[in-house]
C-alpha cells in the first residue's frame, strides 16, 4: 500500500481509470454502486522545503490507486484545501465486496512536490504522511459520513518532528447514493471480528536467527454455502521474553506494506486484556494463573495484534449457528513457513504454489465457540492450548477434514499471499478469479466438472491424511507445542448476538402481566432502622439473662449467703465465667444469636449491602459499628424492662412452627390450617403465600401451589423467589414456555444470583438444551468463585489484623452471601430451620439444593443431585448423601436412606446433622433404642444440628415411652426454651404428671392448651390432672369445714371420678 513516491500524476486529475474485472452475465445483472470519497482539506501540514510546500493527496483502495488530487499550496498556517473527489465501484460479487469493505480501509497519502533544481528534468516527490479511513459505517446502514482522520508521518518525513500541540489531519467525506445493505441484510446480517493477539510460550526451536520464517495462523469461517473460507493471519513477530505486552495496545489492520507505521493501527480499536477468571478459554483457572503470568512476561512469544473483520450474509449467519451447534470447537491452525524470495525471470516452487513441503510445526488450538450461542453473548476471549495437528483428533472434535495449511496450501498460495495481504482469500475474490479463465464459453460444463473434481479431491485428501496418520506418521514438530505449553490468545466478537437476549421489560410485558391478574398497589411495610435496633436490644437482653443464669448456676450459693464480695473475687468469678462460656460453646452460641440482628442494623441503619473496596474502608466501618453497638448495648442493659404482655393468640412465627410440626408428624390437614391462618392474618405478606405454596407442593396439590406462587408474584412482580417458584410450578405442570420466561426473568432481575442461574440451567437440562445448560452453569460457577474469593480475602485480612473484630468480619461475609441471592433468610426462620446443611456449600448445586429442599421441589432436587455427583472430584460429599437420604425418607424408602446415611457417617463422623437424620430414620422405622442413641449423640455435640426442635420432641417421646420421666421433662423444657409449641408443653405436662408434680403439670398443660386448644391429648391429660387435684384448692386455702370436704368426696364417688382419698 505504499505510495509510489517516484511517480508523478497529472495536475487536476480527478481519478485514475481502473480496468473493470471480467464479469459474467449473471453478475452484470447485479447493480453496481459507486462509493465516493472526497478529501476536503488538511491541517498542520509541514513539508521538506519550507513552511508552504506544494502537496497533493493520493487515494488508494484494495491495492488500486483511485486517483491523485491537484497540486495545491499549503498556507502558512499549515492548512490546505483539496476538495478532491474520486470513487470506486462496489460489486457484491466483485473485488470490492462487502467483505472487502469490512476489513480494508481507504489509504490517503499526502505527497510533497519538491522544487526543481538546476539541470533537473523530472519532478521529485516525497511522501509526508498517510491516513486511513475506515468504511465500517457503510456496513451499518449509513449512506454518508464525514470524519477527521489523523495523518501519520511517513518514515523520514518532517512531520515526525512537529510541535506537540500540532494535529496533522485530513477531513474526508464518504457517500453512496443508496445504502449498500438491503433491509434484510441490515436485520439478518452480522459482522464477525476475529482478533489474534499472540502465541505465548512457543517452542525453543523458534529462534530469531537463521532463515527468515513467516509465522501464520488460520481458521475457517462458515459461508452461505456448504464451503468454508479461511482466515489467514500472517507475518507474526517472534519476540524474546523479558517484559509483558503493554495494555491497552492498538489492533492492527490485516494489510501489509502500509507506508506510515502509525497507519497500521485501527482507529479506536484496542486490546484491553482483562482478568484471567473472566476469560472464556482454557487457562482461566486459579491454578493456571502463575503459568500465564510467567508465559506472558518471561517466555518467548509470537505477536500479531491483528483484527480481521468478516461480513456475514443472513444465510451465513444461520449457517454459523448451525455449525456451532453441531461442532462446538473451531480448529485454529498455527504453522511457520520459510520466507521464499524469487528472482525475476525464474520460476520457483513458491511461484507455482507448491509449498506444502515447507510447512513445519503444524499445530492446532481448539476454540470452544459454544458461548456465542448463549443469549445475549457477542464476544468470547481467552487463551487456548496448542497441540500437534492430528487429522483424526481434529475430525473427531470439529468434524473438519481439510487443513488450511496442508490441504489448501496450493489454493491460497501461502508464500505469495504474505507479500500483499495479511488477510484472507475471501469467497468473493475466488469467485472473481474463476471468471478470468479461458473457458468462459463452457462455464456450466466446466463448473460441473470442477464440483466433481473438488469432491474427489476432498475425498482423496481425507483418505490420504487418514492413511498417513494411521500408518504411524506422527507430527513430532507439533508435539513441541504441547511440551512447551504453547497457547494462543484470541478474541471472537460479533456486532449482534446470534441468540438475542430478552430484556426484563419484554419478559414482564409478555408473561408476568398476562398471567398475573392486576391489583392495586399495597402500601409498603417498612422494617427499617428502628425495628433493627429494637431487635438488637431484645437479643442483648436475652443474652444478658442467659449469662446471669450461668452466673447464678456457678456462684449462686455465694450470693445467697449474703457475704460481701471483694473486687478480686469478682475478677476471679469473671475469668471463671468466661472460661465456662468458651468451654461449653455457649459463647459461640451467643455470638450466633446476635449475628442476625447486627446484620439487620448494618443493612437497615447503615444501608450497607455491598462489599468493601479496600481494607481501610472495612476497618473504618468496623470501628464505627463497634462503637454504636456498644452504646446500644449499654442502653439495652440499663433500661427498665416492663413485664411483657402475653399475646392472646399465637404469633405468625409460632404458626409457622406449628405448621412445620404438623408436616413432620404427617398431620397435613392441621398444617394446612396453620398456613391458611397465617395468610388470613396478612394477605400482603409474600412469604406467607410462598410457605403455603411450598406446603402444597409437598402434598402434591400443584394447582393450589401455582395459585399461591402467582398470588405472591402479584404482590411484587420483581420478587426473585416468587419468580423462581412460579417457574418451578410451571415445570411441574409441564407449562414449559411459561417456565422459561419465569426463569429468564429471574436471571435478568438478579444477574448476581447463583440460585437463579443454576435453576435456569436445570430447566434447560430438562429441555435437553445443552448449550443453554452450559451457559447458565458457567455463569453460576463464575459468581460462586467470585464470592468465595471475596470471602477468602476478608478472612485473610481478618487474620492479619489480629483482634480486629473478627466477629464483625463474619457478619460482613454473611451480608455478601445474602446479597448474592444464595438463600432468602425468610425461608429459614430463626425459630426452626426447615432444612439447612451443616457446612457451607462449595458448589452451585448444593447452594440450590438447600433452597429446593425447603420448597419441596423434589423434581429439581434429583436433577441437581445428579449434576452435583458429576461435578464432584474425589467422590460424593457428606452433604450429598445427607440430602439424598432425606429424599428417600420422604418417599418412605428407608433401606435406601439408611445406605446413604451410612456413607455420610463414614465421610463425616462428627456431623450432628447426620446423626439427627439417622435418629429420625430409626424413629420412623420403630427402632427406638437406636434412635435414642442417635438423638443423645446429637445433643451432646457442641454445635447443634439444623433441626434440634424435632430431635428434642422425639427424644422426649422415647423417654416417656421408656418411663424415664425426669429425662423427658428436661428435654421437653429445653425444647420449650428454644422453640415453644403445644407439643413441647404437652411433653412437659405428661412428664410432670407421671412424676406426680400436679401443679407443674397443670401449668404446662394449660400453656399447651393456650397454644392449641384443639389437641385432644392435651384435654385428656388436663382432665386427669383436674380429677386428681380437684380437692387440693380446698386444702390449699385451709378449708376447715370437714362436713364440706366430706360432701366433696361423696360427690366424687357418686359421679365416678376424682380421688376420694383426699
Automatic annotation (TrEMBL):
Entry keyword set: Repeat, TPR repeat
SMART domains referenced in this protein's UniProt entry, alphabetically: C2, TPR
TPR repeats, residue ranges: 686-719
Ranges where the record places region Disordered: 425-454
InterPro entries for this protein: C2_dom, CFAP70, TPR-like_helical_dom_sf, TPR_rpt
SUPFAM superfamilies: TPR-like (SSF48452)
PROSITE patterns assigned: TPR (PS50005)
Listed name of the protein: Cilia and flagella associated protein 70
GO biological process terms, semicolon-separated: cilium assembly; cilium movement
